[in-house]
């Protein structure tokens, strides 16, 4: 493809050109057209300046299409109820740590990891129906589909192992960041009498919840479209008749995980009865110092400032960036942390992710739950393989 047909905007974080196609005679794609001095018809979205909108579509965009819009009239919508506002001058999400800051936090990670790892266990379990399906489709679907099925199988297996999934009308499942709802689909196959409430800020095509309902018209499964930061779970009518509710999420990214955790904590503090939870976070590079829920644990390890947190977040990316192996010995320690051997960086990345999840687990313990953290799939399936499981203390 001719590079002249590609958007010329340089992505600040990736330091490369945007790869989207452009119209004939244009330098920028639709999303980056705002950077064209001759473009007067596109502006940053007033609700979320991370994306742009055509001025002649602004009213409809704000009223019906923007994922950042807040619905009015629903009692469970309370603006920013699950958001923490403690902005500081140096808490920029885009901040890149210096070599000295990375070296300092690497030392703290190495020292603190023993404390974090002591509470993490490997528990890879299976759900019979998902495993049966896996065996049937093996060789006919791509590796990504297989990966997700293995993760779903183990999440359901862990829920069953801790008595958190019941085929009972009095039992409810609340899924945060449901997306296309493949996890909910297989939970419903396992426990069809259970009631399901799914929430996601975005719409999605080809949703698995629609497929589940087509296959079983008696299934009680509903969906709310709402950003997690505005949801007061204690006021959602759908779950009020349920005696036991369990909250789950699979790959809830970055700050969304912390917003979701705060949503659960606020709901419990407001009288919502939650029997337990199973949370599989991901994308730690999208977490921010302000919103992260596990500050007390990090402080106990000496990770106290927003700049420390930015360095920790940066180190966590090393677990998932697919670095090539090197011939350097694993104990080789260059002056520049970015020149560490790939194996060493990957190992440090795993340690940083573990510390972040243990911090979240410790925070959830403060509202009366016994919390365990499991490596629920092998790292060869996904490096994002930690599951936070909690059960209500007696």
TrEMBL record:
<keyword id="KW-0949">S-adenosyl-L-methionine</keyword>
<comment type="function">
    <text>tRNA methylase which 2'-O-methylates cytidine(4) in tRNA(Pro) and tRNA(Gly)(GCC), and adenosine(4) in tRNA(His).</text>
</comment>
<dbReference type="GO" id="GO:0030488">
    <property type="term" value="P:tRNA methylation"/>
</dbReference>
<dbReference type="Pfam" id="PF05206">
    <property type="entry name" value="TRM13"/>
</dbReference>
<feature type="domain" description="Zinc finger CCCH-type TRM13">
    <location>
        <begin position="5"/>
        <end position="33"/>
    </location>
</feature>
<protein>
    <recommendedName>
        <fullName>tRNA:m(4)X modification enzyme TRM13</fullName>
        <ecNumber>2.1.1.225</ecNumber>
    </recommendedName>
</protein>
<dbReference type="InterPro" id="IPR039044">
    <property type="entry name" value="Trm13"/>
</dbReference>
<comment type="similarity">
    <text>Belongs to the methyltransferase TRM13 family.</text>
</comment>
<keyword id="KW-0479">Metal-binding</keyword>
<dbReference type="InterPro" id="IPR021721">
    <property type="entry name" value="Znf_CCCH-type_TRM13"/>
</dbReference>
<dbReference type="InterPro" id="IPR007871">
    <property type="entry name" value="Methyltransferase_TRM13"/>
</dbReference>
<keyword id="KW-0808">Transferase</keyword>
<keyword id="KW-0819">tRNA processing</keyword>
<dbReference type="Pfam" id="PF11722">
    <property type="entry name" value="zf-TRM13_CCCH"/>
</dbReference>
<keyword id="KW-0863">Zinc-finger</keyword>
<dbReference type="GO" id="GO:0106050">
    <property type="term" value="F:tRNA 2'-O-methyltransferase activity"/>
</dbReference>
<dbReference type="GO" id="GO:0008270">
    <property type="term" value="F:zinc ion binding"/>
</dbReference>
<feature type="domain" description="Methyltransferase TRM13">
    <location>
        <begin position="151"/>
        <end position="389"/>
    </location>
</feature>
<keyword id="KW-0489">Methyltransferase</keyword>
<keyword id="KW-0862">Zinc</keyword>
